[in-house]
Write a structure and sequence with these properties.
The protein is built from 9 helices and 7 strands. The protein is of the alpha/beta class. The chain has a 7-stranded mixed sheet with strand order 3-2-1-4-5-7-6. Helix 2 (9-29) packs across helix 3. The protein binds S-adenosylmethionine (SAM).
Length: 249
């Protein structure tokens, strides 16, 4: 089933739980009766088994094992339905943009902001974009440091976008757009910066090569472009192995 294994992890996780549940429905239809904790245990074991088959990583498998017990613990608890709705909407607003493209929300360090600043070309009128700008830290910092440039952030998660937008509201040379990085034309930028995950890098590199103009610069925070050697690699503070990979086009 290579096709199923290529689905985003969140969909594979849901699929594993749904298939496990269907098996239990079939078992119940046979007239077999067990104490409730045995049903929960069976759901967890089946979900783990199916998650391994669907190639989910150990972190997901742990969550898959815990989920049936969590649902059982909350079952019948006097929690109003709107609490779940608010939780779901909150998570979607903060993390939704990166869910299917498999890009989590984490932030470049202040050290990375400073080193990014050192990688901007000198002449005024420079155009910079942060693809997936999160809460807008790098854009706000660079717009303050280089009032002669135009700094754009693109963010797909609505709440995250709102925070970045508010953060940059008083900076006339910073613009935070709500939308997908895949719909952003890179031709207008002299420097394109992205801190995403390994998953979108091949497609992003293809977009960079297609759209960015000669003489412009692509900077990836930490994630390599498969098969490409960066022109410079600059270590930055942050997680293990954090660095800026600089590609001159
Ligand atoms: C790791 S954070 C990087 C934050 C910031 N650029 C930095 O360096 O501190 C990645 C961000 O990309 C956003 N993102 C993921 N997929 C996206 C997409 N297709 N279009 C726009 N933003 C996206 C996520 O919502 C997340 O906020």
């Amino acid at each position: 089933m290579p096709l199923l294994r290529r689905l985003p992890p969140v969909l594979r996780a849901l699929l594993a739980q749904a298939l496990a549940f269907l098996v239990l429905v079939a078992v119940a239809r046979l007239g077999l009766r067990f104490p409730s904790w045995v049903w929960v245990l069976m759901q967890a074991v089946l979900a783990v088994f199916l998650s391994r088959w669907l190639d989910l990583n150990p972190r997901w498998i742990l969550m898959q094992a815990a989920l049936p017990f969590l649902v059982r613990a909350l079952w019948g608890a006097p929690i109003p339905a709107w609490v779940y709705l608010v939780l779901f909407l909150g998570l979607a607003l903060v993390f939704g943009g990166g869910l299917l493209s498999r890009v989590p929300l984490y932030h470049a360090s202040h050290d990375a902001w400073g080193k990014l600043e050192g990688l901007l070309p000198g002449p005024s009128g420079l155009h910079f974009v942060d693809l997936g700008c999160g809460f807008g830290g790098p854009v706000a910092h660079l717009a303050r440091a280089r009032p002669d440039g135009i700094f754009v952030g693109v963010e797909a998660s609505p709440f995250t976008w709102l925070v970045a937008w508010l953060r940059c509201l008083l900076r006339p040379n910073a613009h935070i757009r709500l939308g997908s990085l895949w719909r952003t034309d890179l031709a207008e930028f002299d420097v394109v910066y992205a801190f995403l995950s390994p998953v979108p890098m091949p497609a992003l590199w293809a977009k960079v090569r297609r759209e960015m103009k000669p003489g412009s610069r692509f900077i990836s925070h930490s994630f390599e472009v498969p098969g490409e050697t960066p022109h410079r690699v600059i270590p930055v503070k942050g997680r293990d192995g954090a660095r800026l990979l600089v590609f001159d086009l």
